[in-house]
Amino acid sequence: MTSSRVEQAARNNAVWCETVCRVHGTPGEFHDALWLNRHPVPRFYPNVVTLSTQDGTAAQLANIQGLVATGLPGRWGVKDSFCSLDLAARGFQPLFEATWLWRAPFQPLPNRAASGLHWTWVQSAPELAKWEMAWSGSPANNPSTQQPRLFLPALLANPEIVFIVAYQDQELVAGAIANHTDDVVGLSNVFVPPDDPVAFWAGCVAMAQERFPGVPMVGYEHGPELAIVQEIGFEILQPLKVWTR
Asked: Residue 155: which of 41, 12, 16, 43 has the closest Cα?
């Protein structure tokens, strides 16, 4: 059961990576055991996401080695969804470890809404730019600190993706991305204020459930967020590891 859930979470994540890369003009490829991208990809995104451990490790290593042989420029990464690969001998170093998550639908959420909050979904390109600035922590009045855009307006046209946003007294204070694939919805890129993060996480989950009702929620987190997500009903599945080269 856990393996099946991790495979669903990994595929959901790979589809999200593919979607972001595709709107940037650098689509990848899905194979039985992994998703891979032969092009330089947007920052924070891997070039490989493994999808299965069923007789797939040899094929995964062969594809990764083939990607190494192409001389792909810059720093690039592999998301080892099952912590089943040792890539050190191929010139990779571990970047971080995290834990896959699963949340069954219809579980109750903490009812601790902050005052003056308005939850909604991003509807326009200017609002998406504002959302990305808040997510990245870049001050709006200092363009020199801003990186190239990650989340392009074309993503707003995809009915399987929503950018969740919370306003408090007209200020954008929290958000997340929900992407629906097959029988799960992935929750990622969550940002919340430090005061009462559980309530804001719960709000992000509630908005994702409202848009994609009745399906399990998946994702991955590490560090202090693991305690937060467990408080709002996420189950811990198994570790993943991201390698970079």
From this structure: 16
1-54 residue pLDDT tens: 566 999 999 999 999 999 999 999 999 999 999 999 999 999 999 999 999 987
Q: Could you give the number of structural domains in the chain?
A: 2
Same domain, 95 and 163: no
Pair (125, 228) in one structural domain: yes
User: What predicted TM-score, i.e. pTM, was given to this entire model?
Assistant: 0.94
Q: Are residues 7 and 93 in the same domain?
A: yes
Residue that is last in its domain, among 73, 100, 127: 100
